[in-house]
Amino acid sequence: MRIAMIGTGYVGLVSGACFSEFGVQVCCVDKDAGKIERLRKGEIPIYEPGLDELVTRNVAAGRLSFTTDLAEGMRGANAVFIAVGTPSRRGDGHADLSYVYGAAEEIAQNIEGYTVIVTKSTVPVGTGREVERIIRRVRPDADFDVASNPEFLREGSAIADFMRPDRVVIGTESELAREMMRRLYRPLYLIETPIVMTSLETAELTKYAANTFLATKITFINEIADLCEKVGADVHDVARGIGLDGRIGKKFLHPGPGYGGSCFPKDTLALVRTAQQVGSPLRIVETVVDINDRRKKAMADRIIAACGGVVDGKTVAVLGVTFKPNTDDMRDAPSLDIVPALQKAGAHVRAFDPAGAHEAEKLLPGVEWTKDAYAALSGADCVAIVTEWNEFRALNLTRVKELMKRPVMVDLRNVYSPDEMAAAGFAYSSIGRPS
Ligand code: UGA
């Protein structure tokens, strides 16, 4: 089996490397010559645990290659995966499909024998059909089928998610294409991964439904957390108490500063737009989007309140700025709302992030970046844990207290317990728990 993976962003690179690990011949194609050059040298442009070794191993084995030349990448390919970006369009928040359609035109020109064209990027319902129309228009003679194969990878655990997924969703009407996809995913059949074979439109919608459901679940527990604070209840016990019900499930019930990242904010908004366009509005999701936006903005107020209502002239130490741990991704990270709001209120923000600082420096001007967590805390009036990197879970609290001007901690990820923080002598506030 041979495939071409168009786009070496997060999805394309991880999927391409993982397919090559399955024994498939994979050629990854990207227009960015600098990126392809770096990948050829074994330099991985994104931070994803395990990806480095996976790429190096498969390149050495001759199963994984990189090129800027689409024709070369597609030579002899049984399937071509479109894994280019689908950013939110400025103005209306809908997914910008220009890269997907551009790729379809170019793919059309290079189809040789029977080829399955698979959309892997998250694309609104109807995109696969449009890809089909484009290819048919450019190359009426081409022998091809289209399929949708959305990915459910989480940043930070993408390789495990690809290798041992809860399910694989494949949407196509063609039996030939189905057979091709079965062959590609053969190793997953061996471990009895459920494969949902369905239509193109259903597969496309399934991806959005999954992400919006998870975003809704998080938003639900975040609102319950706010209520817990008012009535003196503990959100973690509520989450456990409901999550043990198999119909609800334990996962994605961790309260926090609001969901961020490259997927949930973009996908919730895009689904809202699709639903509005076809006259079947998703009012729950509209509300989720609104609540989450407000929540991220409101987080700075918690920090200001913990500082006695005033941060003007004070130093706030921020630990973690990426949207979640084990990534350097800053897209829609809560820190992008929190830090500027603190600065606007007059605070001096000193921050540390194990991986995100390089990216964040451009996005968060005026922040003083430090080399480690303790340097950020030194002389600070308050410390806010914004991303739950493991190294923030085991801070030496005695040292933290000695270093800070005042022992005040706002824990937006609930990595510490109110009891241990009280015992350590901190004024401590967290999310949804009696303090
Ligand atoms: C998400 C989905 O989990 C993947 O299944 C999907 O493939 C991916 O989007 C995508 O569409 O490409 P990801 O954005 O990498 O993956 O990150 P998650 O681990 O899902 O976290 C998303 C956000 O939700 C983060 O800001 C995280 O802090 C927040 N979150 C997550 C919570 O606040 N509470 C939770 O209990 C879980």
TrEMBL record:
Keywords per UniProt: NAD, Oxidoreductase
Its domain of life reads Bacteria
Reactions this protein catalyses: UDP-alpha-D-glucose + 2 NAD(+) + H2O = UDP-alpha-D-glucuronate + 2 NADH + 3 H(+)
PANTHER family per record: UDP-GLUCOSE 6-DEHYDROGENASE TUAD (PTHR43750)
Name of the protein in its database record: UDP-glucose 6-dehydrogenase
Ion transport listed as a keyword: no
NCBIfam families noted in UniProt: NDP-sugDHase
The record's family statement is: Belongs to the UDP-glucose/GDP-mannose dehydrogenase family.
Q: Which residues form the UDP-glucose/GDP-mannose dehydrogenase C-terminal domain?
A: 317-418
The family database entries (InterPro entries) matched by this protein are listed as: 6-PGluconate_DH-like_C_sf, NAD(P)-bd_dom_sf, UDP-Glc/GDP-Man, UDP-Glc/GDP-Man_DH_C, UDP-Glc/GDP-Man_DH_C_sf, UDP-Glc/GDP-Man_DH_dimer, UDP-Glc/GDP-Man_DH_N, UDPglc_DH_bac
Q: In which pathway does it act?
A: Nucleotide-sugar biosynthesis; UDP-alpha-D-glucuronate biosynthesis; UDP-alpha-D-glucuronate from UDP-alpha-D-glucose: step 1/1
